[in-house]
Amino acid sequence: MCGWGNTFSTEALEGALPLGQNTPQKCPYGLYAEQLQGTAFTAPRSCNQRVWFYRIRPSVVHFPFTNYEGNEQFSPLNSVKIDLGRLVTPQQIRWMPPKKVEEGIDFVDGLRVVAGSGSPQLKTGFSILQYQFTKSMGDRCMCNSDGDFLFVPEKGELLITTECGKLRVKPKEICVIPRGIKFTVDFADSSCTFARGYMSEVYAGHFVIPDLGPIGANGLANPRDFLYPIACYEDRDQGVEYEIIQKFQNQYFSAKCTYSPFDVVAWHGNYAPYKYDLNLFNVVNSVSYDHLDPSIFTVLTCQSAEKGVAVLDFVIFKDRWSVQEHSFRPPYYHRNTMNEYMGLIEGVYEAKEEGFVMGGGSLHNCMVPHGPEEKVFEKASNAELKPERVSEGSMAFMFESTYIINPTEYAMNEMNIDKDYYKCWINIQKHFNPNQK
């Protein structure tokens, strides 16, 4: 299980894609051929990911990079804190939604690292981020050298323009922008003035859909439901000053160019942005007894070198039927070797009916106990076990990793931490009676 197995071809002008070869002596329409390789040249065919662009100018045409100071967290001084200054604590943590950013802040300047593990320099680990912005990026774009971005919108519909084309992404949809592809994030609706959401960034490998194993050929996320952009180019070079923000080893750098970087007239390959509607996820669940492991809710996974162990899994908990017999149906109390960050896109999460709110998050690390709050346990333990809908109108998600997740200084010092989180468990009652089986 390495890649998607799909190769796409799309052209905005008929005949823009060369026939039979990738680099003819002269490309149609006077275009330039440029390859973006998402894996090593020598990666096995089943794992190899690349895209060929046929564009008006090669992307090497820009002025020199300089340090970008617009986002203080990603300045050369503070970037060291992101990689090395993560704070170590075994405490279960819950965050409230972040304070709203000021007017005039775009996606680049509103991006913050909440937690993570590893380093982009060594291509190991990942980071968890939150974005919020109050204006579109306009004539600015971003290119991430560090890893693949996974967008999980919570408020506001996004219009994401990429070198491969455009994607509209709304809450309860996700979008993946692979490493190295330039993109711009704008409001999809001109009447919108605020957008917020969650993100993850994997430094190693790429996201894929998980193997199904005994589930069989169908279930979870269906490959046919992942949508890719079609070629859509901008030919703008009169009075244009575009700014390219390059994220490189958790620092921002800026380069100017006098044309639109989104000048790709045609492309083909299997390394491209995509979106997915989480409502289409086909839930697999128990129809006899017990609450099954959360791995059955995995939408995307980025696998580590150890088989079956993830650098990062993206898992969702959506509305579904619960029909188990003789069972405690909510998530059970547990400690595990994996590490979990959770967020809420919509509604109320089934195991935390109070305090866990949209736009907030929680962190439970390796071997630290967690589970349903006291009220949820009591209600579920005494409920009539009949078929019922679970999480109606709700959508929660989890980033789960084999790597221990450490919060950043920003998350611990500038975000609103719920200091009473422990109270949802502290009053759990003793029910033990040795005289009553």
UniProtKB/TrEMBL annotation:
<dbReference type="GO" id="GO:0046872">
    <property type="term" value="F:metal ion binding"/>
</dbReference>
<dbReference type="GO" id="GO:0005737">
    <property type="term" value="C:cytoplasm"/>
</dbReference>
<dbReference type="InterPro" id="IPR046452">
    <property type="entry name" value="HgmA_N"/>
</dbReference>
<dbReference type="InterPro" id="IPR005708">
    <property type="entry name" value="Homogentis_dOase"/>
</dbReference>
<feature type="binding site">
    <location>
        <position position="370"/>
    </location>
    <ligand>
        <name>Fe cation</name>
    </ligand>
</feature>
<comment type="similarity">
    <text>Belongs to the homogentisate dioxygenase family.</text>
</comment>
<dbReference type="Pfam" id="PF20510">
    <property type="entry name" value="HgmA_N"/>
</dbReference>
<keyword id="KW-0479">Metal-binding</keyword>
<dbReference type="GO" id="GO:0006572">
    <property type="term" value="P:L-tyrosine catabolic process"/>
</dbReference>
<dbReference type="InterPro" id="IPR014710">
    <property type="entry name" value="RmlC-like_jellyroll"/>
</dbReference>
<feature type="binding site">
    <location>
        <position position="340"/>
    </location>
    <ligand>
        <name>Fe cation</name>
    </ligand>
</feature>
<keyword id="KW-0223">Dioxygenase</keyword>
<feature type="domain" description="Homogentisate 1,2-dioxygenase N-terminal">
    <location>
        <begin position="2"/>
        <end position="278"/>
    </location>
</feature>
<keyword id="KW-0828">Tyrosine catabolism</keyword>
<dbReference type="InterPro" id="IPR011051">
    <property type="entry name" value="RmlC_Cupin_sf"/>
</dbReference>
<feature type="active site" description="Proton acceptor">
    <location>
        <position position="291"/>
    </location>
</feature>
<dbReference type="InterPro" id="IPR046451">
    <property type="entry name" value="HgmA_C"/>
</dbReference>
<dbReference type="Pfam" id="PF04209">
    <property type="entry name" value="HgmA_C"/>
</dbReference>
<comment type="pathway">
    <text>Amino-acid degradation; L-phenylalanine degradation; acetoacetate and fumarate from L-phenylalanine: step 4/6.</text>
</comment>
<protein>
    <recommendedName>
        <fullName>homogentisate 1,2-dioxygenase</fullName>
        <ecNumber>1.13.11.5</ecNumber>
    </recommendedName>
</protein>
<dbReference type="GO" id="GO:0006559">
    <property type="term" value="P:L-phenylalanine catabolic process"/>
</dbReference>
<feature type="binding site">
    <location>
        <position position="349"/>
    </location>
    <ligand>
        <name>homogentisate</name>
    </ligand>
</feature>
<feature type="domain" description="Homogentisate 1,2-dioxygenase C-terminal">
    <location>
        <begin position="280"/>
        <end position="432"/>
    </location>
</feature>
<feature type="binding site">
    <location>
        <position position="334"/>
    </location>
    <ligand>
        <name>Fe cation</name>
    </ligand>
</feature>
<dbReference type="GO" id="GO:0004411">
    <property type="term" value="F:homogentisate 1,2-dioxygenase activity"/>
</dbReference>
<keyword id="KW-0585">Phenylalanine catabolism</keyword>
<feature type="binding site">
    <location>
        <position position="370"/>
    </location>
    <ligand>
        <name>homogentisate</name>
    </ligand>
</feature>
<keyword id="KW-0560">Oxidoreductase</keyword>
<keyword id="KW-0408">Iron</keyword>
